[in-house]
Structure formats: structure tokens, C-alpha cells
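Recap from last week: sequence in, structure out.
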Amino acid sequence: QVQLVESGGGLVQPGGSLTLSCAASGSIFSINAMGWYRQAPGKQRELVATIPSRAGPNYADSVKGRFTISRDNAKNTVYLRMNSLKPEDTAVYYCNADVRRTIYTNYDNYWGQGTQVTVSS
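Predicted C-alpha cells:
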């Protein structure tokens, strides 16, 4: 089994910052892409940012210049630094990863349970 556990969400004022973390654990041989998605009430889940194992990150246009995704491969952890937060960033943020459990298996996609981010004064 593979688990993705997010942390770091909370309530922040507009213009503030938060850093989300997501640690993958369990039976892991390698991890390819890791990323963050979000889902606001009444809306579909959308991509926020992804970072492949050996390439540069990709961002949604709405967060470019404000959010930074990074990863620590030794810790199987991905981070999302969110600056200049806006009320429209309010959502449940989900971690996502493509994980290969053994050398004999293909990559499977996993989701975390989500962490709430609320931007409000």
C-alpha cells in the first residue's frame, strides 16, 4: 500500500502565505511525477502544479508567480509554497503522485486525503 499524507493547510488572511507538505509512505520503489490539485466548493478539481522526477515544474496560470512546488526525493515529499494568497485560492488541496511499488510493476496514481486552505479576512 501507498499513502500520501498532506499537512500545512489552515486559515490565512489575503496576502498571506502557507506551505503545504505531502509525504508518501509505504511500499515505494520510485516516484515519477508529484503534484497538487485543488477543489473549491461547487467546482471541479483542478491542477495547481506538478513536478516530474527529472524535469521542471508546471503551474496553472492562476498561480504562476505566487506558488512554488518543490520535492525532496530522499524523503518522498512534495511541497507547495503559496504566497500572496487570494480568497479565490480557498479550496481543499490534494496531493497526487505516480508511484512504482516494485521494480516489476508499473506506475499507479495515488491521491492524498486533502487539506483545507481558507483565505479570508
